[in-house]
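USER:
Try writing one entry.

ASSISTANT:
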Amino acid sequence: MKKDSKEAAKKIKMLVFDVDGVMTDGSITYDENGVEYKTFNAKDGHGIVRMNKSGFITAIITARNNGTVQHRAKNLNFTELYQGRKYKLPALEELMQKYNLDYENISYMGDDLPDICILEKVGLACCPADAVEEVQNICNFKSKFNGGKGAVRELCDFILDVQGIEKDYIVSEGPAK
């Protein structure tokens, strides 16, 4: 049985995200030299910045290893970045141990089959509107937006609203310190 999303959101202390299909629309672009490019959504980025400013732990766990993701994570001041993690659950367990958190304190947004092992365990299991059906079936928070098109921001706003945290309208994405 799926947990009530509002009740689950009240306990969230850490937000964890997949990248391709969640923070991006899932497109992977290469130039003639094999350099990989990704496009991110500025509104999603602002949501992450607000979560960080509000004291939440933010993390990325992705199977791919990409300099663009590293740059984006640094630019938004993500607390943690795990790249090249084909098996994502051990990475999440490392994070939980490091920050002394339980599954109920974790929100995870994923869009495809490799994310299910985490989505089945966390307190707030989240997906973009265009996630595969198997993922949508187990999530207790489904964004009305597609990956890379505002799904991350909608989740951030939802958690802030449920926890009664005021929105900071002055925050800018700005470069990492």
The chain has one domain: 5-22+38-162. Residues 5-22+38-162 form a domain with the Rossmann fold fold (CATH 3.40.50.1000). The two ends are 43 Å apart (CA to CA). The mean pLDDT is 92.
